[in-house]
Specification:
This protein is mainly alpha-helical. The chain has three domains: 285 residues, no CATH class; 200 residues, Orthogonal Bundle (Clc chloride channel), CATH 1.10.3080; 127 residues, CBS-domain. Helix content is 67%, strand content 4%. The strands form two sheets. The protein has a three-stranded antiparallel beta sheet with strand order 1-6-5. Strands 2-3-4 form a three-stranded antiparallel beta sheet. Strand 5 and strand 6 form a beta hairpin. The longest helix is centred in the first third of the chain and has 36 residues. The N and C termini lie far apart (97 Å). This is Chloride channel protein. It is a multi-pass membrane protein. InterPro entries: CBS_dom (IPR000644), CBS_dom_sf (IPR046342), Cl-channel_core (IPR014743), ClC (IPR001807), ClC-type_chloride_channel (IPR050368).
């Protein structure tokens, strides 16, 4: 009997082992689920991932924008050329372009499993409490990643198609063959189309970068994504049809607008939103110039105005992602050809110092002329023509600005579009002195007219071209008089480009790093440091000296006491029942009320948003009172200033703070962030109405 049972012991043993193994796996799986259900992703931990996703879409936006410009430019140069191209059997060239395109299938091999895993993890996390925020963020970031990948490959195909049939990549050769009447008609029609597109959306006017800086500085961080898309389309029409404007402003604005939308959906705090906006802006610069380091420096120096460790990882990841995507769509070649350079003698530093002075003066002139043209076309000039222009609709004004740009393009082809092709020619020293001087002056005037009249585009790259032309002309003179101790004119063209960018943005690090990265030459850093520093400091000094003595936001906040804006409200006793508290909150203007503690002292505030967690469960209504929902907050003194109040709000991450009451008063104060914003807006509106409009660093682009 026992002999017969021996063979059965093997299967029984294996079955027992399998049961134990399955039980262990089950316990491990349950423990993993419980750990994931306890998981809470704070803002900083998911911010780098959000920054990378924003960078991905900024790179896509740069690719779409570049192809839109190519499409409009192709239409401008005529369908006849396209037919001729097709008759020349370019189908083979098109297939070669598709084969040579940078498809990067590894992006899909990496991105799709990661996004799918995030979606799967989100399904396993049980709902309820803080886990809902985790599920929502994981799901949204995963879907955005998949959406970006689904846009990338069609965009690569479009770029390949545009590389065969587009015209914007070879402007110096194509422009001389453009009929004279089309050189006048195309920018005129483009300006009218842009004016009609933006006529009912005045909030989309501007250069792009200043609007992002103001959004970050004010703490609003609200840039709707539809505005960013509209600005990209309008700027593509302006540049593609021949208007004098730059590409970087719309890309910066579009990237920041997308970041603003994503950050608000993810529920980020204001501080995190500011960093995310900088991610979108920096990735836009990185993608436009194929310069990730310069984009990251731009985000920290110009947008955030700070260099802190906590902002590094999201901004750098965004710049890397934007550059990788743009390289796949627009190519990996640098925008500037690598030109051999060396500092011939130590005395040549004096020449670069002189170039810095010239770049600073040019940037200051550009800023003043740009603002002057904007006010002239808006009817604020003193002559009849300005008044007449101000009475006309935006499409007509923008069309006239485009016509002026078309006329100036006859004298200098650099006026047409962004004109970036001519920077390489200046860097190689192939442009004569008269051409360089003419291009510098006419590009400055044409850009001011195009944008001031209502056209859409940035001023960042036109300033770079102006600096390159001025630097080339300056280098030609210096090399003529001192041939043995100075380098060729092309070196001065590159350094002048960086000096103009640094002066216009008042960001010397941005100008230095951009040209250092684009030139690919370590030896150019010394002259760049000299020129960019002097140009930036000079433009800043001239602008501040010229600007009217109007109080800045910081001055207003420091000089205004809290009691000037605080509203007086009757505080809510600690024992107020939930139903009565709900009625009081819903009828209050700010949606926030001060709350007393059990001994009658000011405790904190209660907000209408806090009712969302309990309003559906009527069983808790009899159990909860105001003190259960109130949040303890420090009370402001009535004599403290608004700057201190905003600092406390940012530290507590709230929109309202209680204000201590005067002795014997039955009411106490409440200061809201919205009240501070209305106060600043009213002060700026009054200053503009009186003609006192300060030019801040953020408005100089």
């Amino acid at each position: 009997m026992m002999a017969g049972d021996a063979p059965a012991s093997g299967p029984v043993l294996r079955r027992a082992v399998w049961i134990r193994l399955r039980a262990a796996l089950s316990r491990f799986f349950l423990a993993t689920l419980q750990a994931s259900n306890r998981l809470r992703l704070p803002g900083p931990s998911v911010l780098p991932v959000a920054g990378a996703v924003v960078g991905l879409y900024s790179g896509l936006a740069a690719g779409i924008f570049s192809n839109l410009i190519g499409l409009v430019s192709g239409v401008t140069f005529g369908a006849a050329t396209l037919k001729e191209t097709l008759r020349q059997d370019q189908f083979k060239a098109l297939m070669e372009a598709f084969a040579a395109a940078r498809w990067h299938p590894e992006y899909a091999f990496i991105g799709v499993p990661l996004a799918s895993g995030a979606l799967l993890l989100a399904r396993f996390i049980e709902p309820g409490g803080p886990r809902d925020e985790v599920k929502r963020r994981l799901r949204l970031l995963a879907l955005l990643t998949l959406g970006g990948l689904s846009l990338y490959y069609p965009l690569v195909a479009l770029a390949a198609l545009n590389s065969v049939f587009g015209h914007s990549h070879n402007l110096p050769e194509a422009l001389p063959h453009l009929p004279w009447w089309l050189m006048l008609l195309a920018p005129t029609l483009g300006g009218m189309a842009v004016g009609r597109l933006l006529r009912d959306r005045p909030e989309t006017h501007g250069h792009g970068v200043p609007e992002v800086v103001r959004a970050v500085k004010s703490g609003a961080n609200a840039l709707p994504a539809d505005r960013g898309l509209l600005k990209l389309v309008a700027s593509a029409i302006t540049i593609g049809s021949g208007g004098s404007a730059g590409r970087e402003g719309p890309i910066v604005y579009g990237g920041a607008a997308f970041a603003s939308t994503v950050g608000r959906v993810l529920g980020f705090s204001r501080r995190e939103l500011s960093i995310l906006l900088a991610c979108g802006a920096g990735a836009g610069i990185s993608a436009s110039f194929n310069a990730p380091i310069a984009g990251a420096v731009f985000a920290m120096e110009i947008i955030l105005r700070e260099f802190e460790l906590r902002v590094f990882s999201p901004i750098i990841l965004a710049s890397v992602a934007g550059t990788l995507v743009s390289q796949g769509v627009m190519g990996e070649s640098a925008m500037l050809r690598h030109v051999p350079y060396e500092l011939v003698s130590g005395g040549e530093v004096l020449a670069y110092a002189g170039l810095g002075i010239g770049c600073g003066l040019l940037a200051f002139t550009f800023v003043q002329l740009l603002h002057g043209m904007e006010h002239y076309f808006h009817g604020h000039g003193k002559d009849r023509l300005s008044v007449w222009l101000g009475s006309k609709p935006l499409p007509l004004r923008a069309g006239l600005g485009g016509l002026c740009a078309g006329v100036l393009a006859f004298a200098s082809p650099t006026v047409w579009g962004s004109g970036h092709d001519y920077i390489n020619l200046a860097a190689l020293g192939r442009l004569p002195f008269v051409f360089l001087i003419t291009a510098c002056l006419l590009k400055l005037v044409a850009t001011a007219i195009t944008i001031g009249s209502g056209g859409s585009g940035g001023t960042f790259f036109p300033a770079a071209l102006i600096g390159a032309m001025a630097g080339g002309a300056f280098g030609t003179l210096v090399h003529y008089f001192f041939p043995e101790s100075t380098g060729p004119s092309g070196a001065y063209a590159l350094v002048g480009m960086g000096g103009a960018v640094a002066a216009l943005t008042r960001g010397p690090l941005t100008g230095m790093m951009m040209l250092y990265e684009l030139s690919g030459n370590h030896d150019i850093i010394l002259p760049l440091m000299v020129t960019c520093t002097i140009a930036s400091a000079l433009c800043h000094y001239l602008t501040e000296r010229k600007a009217p003595k109007v109080q800045s936001d910081s001055d207003l906040l420091d000089a205004t006491p809290v009691r000037a804006l605080a509203v007086q409200l009757t505080p809510v006793p600690a024992g107020t029942p939930l139903r009565a508290l709900t009625d009081l909150l819903l009828t209050s203007e700010a949606g926030t009320l001060p709350v007393l503690d059990t001994v009658g002292q000011l405790y904190g505030t209660v907000q209408v948003e806090q009712l969302r967690e309990v309003w559906r469960d009527e069983s808790v209504y009899p159990l909860l009172v105001a003190s259960d929902l109130a949040r303890k907050l420090p009370a402001l003194a009535p004599d403290s200033n608004l700057a201190h109040a905003l600092h406390v709000m940012d530290h507590e991450d709230v929109d309202a703070l209680p204000v201590t009451a005067s002795p014997g008063s039955q009411t106490c104060g409440l200061l809201t962030r919205a009240a501070v914003r209305r106060f600043l807006f009213a002060q700026h509106a009054q200053a503009h109405a009186e003609g006192n409009y300060p030019v801040s660093p953020s408005e100089a682009r």
